[in-house]
Amino acid sequence: MNYPQTLAWLNSLGRFGMKLGLGRTEALLKAMGDPHDLFQGVHVAGTNGKGSVCAMLAAILQAAGYRVGLMTKPHLISYTERIQVDQQPISDDDFAALLTELQPIFDRVAIEHGQPTEFEVLTAASFYYFARAGIDLLICEVGLGGRLDATNVVDLGVEIITNIALDHTQHLGATLELIAAEKAGILKPDSLAITGAQPPALGVIEAEAQRQSIPLLRLGREITFTAVDRDWSGLLVSATTPSATYSDLRVPLLGLHQAENAALAVAGVDALRSRGWEISDGALKNGLAHTRWPGRLEVVDQDPIVLVDGAHNPAGLDRTLTAAAHLRHGKPMVVVFGAMQDKDLPAMLSRLREAGAPVIFSRIDWHRAADPSELAKAYGESSRVAAGASQALAMASQEVGKEGIVLVCGSIYLAGEAMLAVGATRAHPRPVPHGRPRR
Predict the structure, then answer these.
(1) CA–CA separation, 182 vs 196, rounded Å?
(2) Angle, vertex CA 10, rays to CA 74 and CA 25, nearest 5
(3) Sign of CA dihedral 343, 344, 349, 352
(4) Greatest Cα pair distance in the chain
């Protein structure tokens, strides 16, 4: 298959929907020689911030001289973003060749275990690719929940659960405690666990860590941090773990909430050090300072400033709107919003009303997207509707003028479409300067 044919085949798997469980993924990996058993690193779950923590960890470990595999999801613009080595996505041609090579295995396993889903295929293929690429460490982001997520076949030695909020309740449960139980399913015996969760979810994670007889570091207790918000320059963070205090850490990501993610990443580095991995303080500082996580409060255009963010649930949208309010400094702002129909739309629309900015509801080219006309109707205040990201950006830019801000939010898919519309198509981080190679 060439790349377009590969995408068409992957999209065809979407008709099988979401199937939580590890059986098919384990069968696929067994047929590939269990490549996932080779890896050490960090497995990251949570409701919000897990991608940012992964990006920070990958940048730090690359700065330390390691060859780093990075699995994130979903993607902004291209499926290739989900399989990265040293923060460079797999090429289109290699992606197509990888899935073509593995397709006989997918077909063979389907006979006994049923057709793998798109996510199961991508997860198994990623592990196979990383094993062949000879990575030193793997940073793996959970797709959905944790306990039954396809990525939960790995035992990397360190687990981070960022925070717990209401999202994907139809799959994970309607309470914070139920969702926490699913996220805590990534904890493994003989590992080290870290969390930013707060009560009541924290108690569930504590109980699971105790059941597994593993140490658990908690944000606000064993891990503390302070931060100075430097507006458009990012943050200056100091973090304290049981091992040390790390001062004056530059974090270029926007939004004060990234200080929490940075503290969790620092604790993750300490955990890897305790397992024998050499990571200098200089690499920690250098990696954090060079972290880039596309589509998360990222400036993708100027005159006016276009700020895109992938927050896709009420808790995440709260953080995004709070950060934008801090950054705008009285400048005119228009919000371009779109979301998936299975989200808590009433709660998200309520947050938008509180933002005090005009809203343009944009259509998203995705099968689960909510109808923007229905969103505008439910919003109940003066708003406009756009046929897509390009039109929404044009409308918003005209309204705010060259000195204003256009905030695009509500869905990572809308963020990606906005980036394409303004030509910001390089949806992966800049390379981080390497330290001494460690192979």
Answers:
(1) 15
(2) 75
(3) negative
(4) 61
Given this model, what pLDDT does residue 15 score? Answer: 54
Do residues 155 and 188 touch, judged by C-beta distance below 8 A?
A: yes
Q: Where are the domains of the chain?
A: 3-289, 298-422
275-304 pLDDT, tens digit per residue, is 999 999 999 999 999 999 999 999 999 999
Q: Which fold has domain 3-289?
A: UDP-N-acetylmuramoyl-L-alanine:D-glutamate ligase (3.40.1190)
Q: Distance between CA 427 and CA 70 in Å, rounded?
A: 14
Sequence-distant (≥ 6) Cβ neighbours of residue 34 within 8 angstroms: none
Location of structure tokens 């979301």: 339
**Cα angle value 132/137/141 (rounded, 5°):** 95
End-to-end CA distance of the chain, in Å?
Answer: 33
pLDDT in tens, 11-57: 888 655 567 789 999 999 999 999 999 999 999 999 999 999 999 99
Residue 91 to residue 154: CA distance in whole angstroms:
25
CA atoms 319, 320, 325, 327: torsion sign: positive
Two tokens at 140? 């793996």
Based on its alpha-carbon atoms, the radius of gyration of the chain, rounded to whole angstroms, reads: 21
CATH T-level topology, domain 298-422: Protein-Tyrosine Phosphatase; Chain A (3.90.190)
pLDDT at 367: 84
d(CA 353, CA 145): 29
- Taken in order 402, 408, 414, 419, the sign of the CA dihedral is positive
